[in-house]
Design brief:
By secondary structure, the protein is of the alpha/beta class. The chain folds into 2 domains: 487 residues, ANL, N-terminal domain (Rossmann fold); 131 residues, ANL, C-terminal domain (GMP Synthetase, Chain A, domain 3). 32% of the residues lie in helices and 24% in strands. A 9-stranded mixed sheet has the order 5-4-17-16-18-19-20-21-24, sandwiched between helices. The protein has a 5-stranded parallel sheet with strand order 7-6-8-11-12, sandwiched between helices. Helix 9 crosses helix 10 and helix 12 crosses helix 13. The structure holds coenzyme A and adenosine monophosphate (AMP). The site of coenzyme A (COA) has 27 residues, from strand 9 and helix 12.
């Protein structure tokens, strides 16, 4: 373990966490003072409708007001709110709080003039440009519900989200810029709308100079509609604390994404609280979060938390390596005076691979940096050690999910010191409002150090999902039905005898590729759509760089008997199908054609067993296996890396 902070500070934090569980009314009631309310909530927690919990009932606020207007009013008008640092276009642009407010109020006016009213949905499908942040906050300003779709998703994934969210307007861009290519967004958007039963009334398109999009009848040009002569700014619309701020779709096991609902009041309180109490960032300081606005980390810690805090946030349009080199993050920290940075372990592994001795890190002064936070996948001890050795600041693992919106477990940082000793491989202790329990299959709590299903006792704290978009039943079925009174996280792991949480990986079939959460179901659907495929399974296997990569096992239809050249073509076609149906981020490279898939007698494919064999682990073969010879035949393929 590394150095400890004073016992007093630790005890104070432990007491605060205990109070948040024993007396959520007083704990979260006090935290609510961090937010400017139009009407203060009557109380913190409404449990009348349990297991559907509501935070800050009766409260009325506007989240955009809290993120922008109040800082402008209180002396931060000229402070930089947002820096767009874009090595892929060779530009850097800064926006003060006053400038960002002006843009957001105008775009809110655009949306209002297009007929968007409180409760309407707006889908945002954009690369890492400031206009994405402007569009999100503009929705919040008029009480519309945004649903940001990650730019790396292909048309079918975008279509599924448009169909479920039923947006009145879609906001997009002509292109995104990847190091290897310019990605044309508009044709993908057009295809998605074509595929979707729901059609938006309008699309607002940001034309970028790298590629102009052809605009159709329903399309409007961002620049034209934002002309100050063409639009009057919109005022903030008061919303209820429990009104949705956004819906963010995430992957489950099936191909149908889950619409995670985020409320307004609970989220604003939890994020503002977390920024200072957990991440140690104060108003006026500069923070860099290297995620994407399409993921939950981007929503919470590129956009909402830093702006609710009155901090400066860096929106980075680039990669940890290759734009131009493995020193990109260190340059950002230096040039912008970043006090704390947040990224994914994959990004650190990519940097380490290209610059193992961290020579680029030593190029200049990184003294502004107090801590590096990492989340999105398990932080392996080797990566933690490398970052710790070279950065000389606390490297802090934190565990959370799209569903929770902010960390479940973290080691809080105070003035550049981790509050508790760091145990590599553990995101440390559960934070306020999270009652973490590890349960066995019967729902019994297991002893310290024993692995099981990591669950959270209900209610979960403010900011966590109140339900799934228009699907209370699916919310209950997916998360609450396994163990009465608990939320099932989907992660397996253990808690040690000092209360440290160790998250070892998903217990379901959700994939985590370079910190990107993907569903096996989506990939399998894409593969199954090929005319030669009878059935298939996708498993996530260990990868040195990306944590996990998908691997496909495919059974061909009877009578399909390609020769080696035909097999090669088939594999290429299947890889291309996943790329075009799910997206390049799925990074499927390996497809094995096999005779049969191992199943249980009830027909469930044994993905976990196959994954364990492929990763060289001891495989748990269920007694209900239908035909063990199928698994035996597959074992050399799985072990050998297949082909
Ligand atoms: N829009 C369009 N395409 C995208 C995209 C986007 N927003 N993001 C990624 N892609 C594409 C890439 O261009 C690449 O395409 P290619 O196969 O044609 O090269 C593919 O998706 C895979 O991209 P990526 O996952 O970035 O892998 P990589 O091998 O190019 O880079 C890393 C590896 C580690 C540098 C990269 O994965 C990374 O930066 N990871 C950190 C992820 C992260 O921060 N996650 C947030 C979790 S909190
Ligand atoms: P997402 O919803 O995309 O944020 O992905 C959430 C999933 O990522 C979790 O359920 C975990 O499986 C994994 N995850 C996120 N952070 C961590 C972490 N610090 N340690 C281990 N797994 C993590």
């Amino acid at each position: 373990m590394t150095d400890l902070m004073s016992n007093d500070a630790q005890q104070q934090y432990r007491d605060a966490v205990a109070r948040s569980l024993e007396d959520p009314e007083s704990f979260w009631g006090e935290a609510a003072d961090l937010i400017t309310w139009i009407t203060r909530p009557e109380r913190a927690l409404d449990d009348a409708d349990a297991p559907f919990y509501r935070w800050f009932p009766g409260g009325r606020l506007n989240v955009c007001f809290n993120a922008l207007d109040r800082h402008v009013v209180h002396g931060r008008a000229d402070q930089t709110a947002l820096v767009h640092d874009s090595p892929v276009t060779g530009t850097t642009r800064s926006f003060t709080y006053a400038e960002l407010l002006d843009l957001v109020a105008r775009f809110a006016g655009v949306l209002r003039d297009l007929g968007v009213v409180k409760g309407d949905r707006v889908v945002i499908y954009m690369p890492m440009v400031p206009e994405a942040v402007v569009a999100m906050l503009a929705c919040a300003r008029i009480g519309a519900v945004h649903s940001v779709v990650f730019g790396g998703f292909a048309p079918a994934e975008l279509a599924a989200r448009i169909e479920d969210a039923e947006p009145k307007v879609v906001v997009s861009a002509s292109c995104g810029i990847e190091p290897s290519r310019v990605v044309a967004y508009k044709p993908m958007l057009d295809e998605a709308i074509e595929r979707s039963a729901h059609k938006p009334d309008h699309c607002v398109i940001l034309q970028r100079e790298q590629l102009h999009a052809e605009l159709g009848e329903r399309d409007l040009d961002w620049k034209q509609v934002m002309n100050p002569d063409a639009v009057a700014p919109a005022a903030c619309v008061p919303v209820g604390s429990t009104d949705p701020l956004y819906v963010l779709y995430t992957s489950g096991t099936t191909g149908r994404p889950k619409g995670i609902v985020r409320d307004s009041g609970g989220y604003a309180v939890a994020l503002r609280w977390s920024m200072t109490e957990l991440y140690g960032v104060q108003p006026g300081e500069t923070w860099f979060c290297g995620s994407d606005v399409g993921w939950v980390v981007g929503h919470s810690y590129i956009v909402y938390a830093p702006l609710l805090t009155g901090a400066t946030t860096i929106l980075y349009e680039g990669k940890p390596v290759g734009t131009p080199d493995a020193g990109a993050y260190w340059r950002l920290i230096r040039e912008h005076g970043v006090v704390s940075a947040f990224s994914a372990p994959t990004a650190v592994r990519a940097i380490k691979k290209q610059d193992p001795d961290a020579t680029l890190l030593k190029d200049g002064d990184l003294s502004s940096l107090r801590a590096l936070f990492l989340a999105g996948e398990r932080l392996d001890p080797d990566t933690w050690q490398w970052a710790t050795d070279h950065l000389g600041v606390p490297v802090v693992d934190n565990w959370w999910q799209t569903e929770t919106g902010w960390p479940i477990a973290i080691n809080p940082v105070r003035e550049g010191e981790a509050l508790f000793g760091i145990k590599p491989g553990s995101p440390t202790l559960p934070t306020a409002g999270y009652d973490v329990r590890v349960l066995d299959e019967r729902g019994e709590q297991v002893p310290a150090g024993t692995e099981g299903a990591i669950c959270l006792r209900l209610p979960m704290p403010p900011g966590t999902l109140p339900t799934l978009w228009r699907d209370d039943q699916r919310y209950v079925d997916s998360y609450l039905s396994a163990f009465d009174g608990y939320y099932l996280s989907g992660d397996g792991g253990y808690v040690d005898d000092e209360g440290y949480v160790f998250v070892m990986g998903r217990t379901d079939d959700v994939l985590n590729v370079a910190g990107h959460r993907l569903s096996t179901g989506s990939l399998e659907e894409a593969l199954a759509g090929h005319p030669a495929v009878a059935e298939c399974a996708v498993i996530g296997v260990h990868d040195e760089l990306k944590g996990q990569v998908p691997r496909a096992l495919v059974v061909l239809k009877a009578g399909t008997d390609p020769d080696e050249a035909g097999l090669q073509t088939l594999r290429q076609e299947l890889v291309a199908r996943v790329r075009s149906e799910v997206g390049a981020v799925a990074a499927l490279r390996q497809v094995d054609v096999v005779d049969a898939l191992p199943k249980t007698r009830s027909g469930k494919i044994l993905r976990k067993t196959m994954r364990q064999i492929a990763d060289g682990q001891e495989a748990a073969v269920p007694s209900t296996i239908e035909d063990v010879s199928v698994l035996d035949a597959l074992t050399p393929v799985l072990r050998g890396g297949g082909g």
